[in-house]
Write a structure and sequence with these properties.
With 123 residues, this protein is mainly alpha-helical. It has one domain: 3-Layer(aba) Sandwich (Rossmann fold). Helices cover 55% and strands 8% of the residues. It is built from six helices and four strands, in the order αβααβααβαβ. Strands 1-2 form a two-stranded parallel sheet. A two-stranded parallel sheet has the order 3-4. The longest helix has 17 residues.
Length: 123
């Protein structure tokens, strides 16, 4: 979010023009808000987050299906010896449970998750 790559902004505008819903996980929303209090926190970040949130269609609630999918992903990744971070596991589980596409530039981590529908709009 801090970098605001032009390719992402163009793709986001294109998806909106095609009337695709733009939603984020409650976990992603929490991470965005945590950015307001971290070492790199700035008033500009707060404004960026607020503007982004106003433009999306919603924040998906963290529910039982998201938790169950997250636990299953964690089990699979631990068994394979390829775990990823806790928040990333939760975001992946939420994405799968919600039947959404995860847009991220963190392909290295998220590509370990079986059955995750993933797109990188930066590269």
């Amino acid at each position: 979010m801090r970098e605001r790559p032009e390719s992402v902004l163009r793709r986001l505008a294109n998806e909106v023009a095609q009337q695709n819903r733009i939603v984020i996980s409650a976990i992603t929303y929490a991470e965005m808000r945590y950015g307001q209090i971290g070492k790199k926190a700035s008033p500009k970040h707060t404004v960026l987050v607020d503007e982004f949130i106003r433009r999306i269609d919603g924040i998906l609630p963290w529910d039982m299906a998201a938790v169950d999918a997250t636990v299953e992903i964690k089990r699979q990744l631990i068994a394979a010896g390829t775990p990823i971070g806790e928040n990333d596991t939760a975001i992946a589980g939420h994405t799968i449970a919600s039947r959404c596409v995860l847009v991220t530039n963190n392909v290295r981590e998220f590509s370990r998750v079986p059955a995750l529908n993933l797109e990188d709009w930066c590269h």
